[in-house]
Design goal:
By secondary structure, the chain is mostly helical. The protein has a domain of 29 residues. It is 49% helix and 0% strand. It is built from 3 helices and no strands. The chain is elongated and about 100 Å long. It is a multi-pass membrane protein.
Length: 119
């Protein structure tokens, strides 16, 4: 497995986790933070601590995603082959053969007004 493939798998996992963390949040104060701290102050962490955790994890995952994307760009196998455009190269003149012209069918079925004999 190449380094780029490992980075690609990590990017997919981090992106999925980032989507999950963002979907759990609710900008109106609901979501996961309200279910943990809504009943009283003796709950798991309280509203403020849950919101802080979700906010910090969102920033951490977004930063990690950005770093992984930048590092994967370095890990791409660019090869030794030149990727310059061949369209601008004057030495490489390749011509495509033209398709063979097909003759139009000739028929003598066209009737002229003089040929028609209507009675």
């Amino acid at each position: 497995m190449s380094t780029f493939t490992i980075f690609l798998a990590l990017i997919v996992v981090v992106a999925f986790l980032l989507v999950v963390v963002i979907m759990v949040q609710n900008p109106k104060g609901g979501g996961l933070s309200s279910s943990f701290g809504g009943g009283g102050t003796q709950q798991l962490g309280g509203v403020k601590k849950t919101t802080d955790f979700l906010d910090k994890s969102t920033w951490a995952l977004a930063t990690l995603l950005l770093v992984l994307i930048l590092l994967s760009n370095i890990a791409i196998n660019k090869g030794t082959e030149s990727i310059d455009s061949k369209a601008l190269d004057s030495d490489a003149t390749t011509t495509q053969p033209l398709p063979a012209a097909t003759p139009l069918p000739t028929t003598n079925d066209t009737a002229t007004p003089e040929d028609s004999t209507e009675e």
